[in-house]
Design goal:
The chain is an alpha+beta fold. It has helices at 18-26, 48-57, 131-144, and strands spanning 31-35, 40-45, 68-71, 76-82, 94-97, 102-106, 116-119. The strands form two sheets. Strands 5-2-4-3-7 form a five-stranded antiparallel beta sheet, covered by helices on one side. A two-stranded antiparallel sheet has the order 1-6. A hairpin with a 4-residue loop joins β3 (68-71) and β4 (76-82).
Length: 147
């Protein structure tokens, strides 16, 4: 019986892929500033690896339409959550982007070293991570060091 292919792991995305790096070099207009708090809030997690471990702990699939960004310059993970809920994530090393905050976002599938999709949003119905569950996963990572 053939082995089923394992789903990609978040930790595999710690470094940007070569194809992404190439696209950043060919277009100067790959990001824009977007107002938070209207359709979604965002939670910024530092460092990037810690945020990815939390998503692994939540068994969050990479390819299911959850909007997740990486800022490879600042080594931060940005996770979209339902509007009005980001402050429910109270784990250390996070900050909430809500109404009045701005986020650098990729235009389409492209991005930049400062804003690139790790998991692109569903085109018509993005899925959001629950901020309370994300907070619990981060606390678990902080306490045990294990996803």
């Amino acid at each position: 019986m053939p082995k089923a292919e394992a789903e990609p792991q978040w930790s595999a995305l710690v470094e940007p892929e070569e194809a992404a790096r190439s696209s950043w070099d060919t277009s100067p207009y790959v990001t824009r500033l977007v107002d938070c708090g209207l359709e979604w809030d965002a939670i910024v997690i530092a460092p990037l690896e810690r945020g990815m471990a939390a998503l692994t702990r939540l068994s969050l699939p990479i390819d299911r339409g959850y909007p997740v960004l990486a800022d490879y310059v600042r080594q931060e993970l940005i996770v979209h959550v339902p509007a009005g809920t980001a402050r429910r994530c109270t784990a250390q090393g996070t900050r909430s982007l809500t109404t009045g905050s701005w986020l650098l976002m990729p235009i389409g599938q492209r991005g930049s070293l400062s804003a690139t999709w790790l998991s692109t949003p569903h085109p018509t119905r993005p899925r959001f991570v629950d901020p309370g569950e994300l907070s619990d996963a981060l606390r678990h990572i902080d306490q045990t060091g294990v996803a």
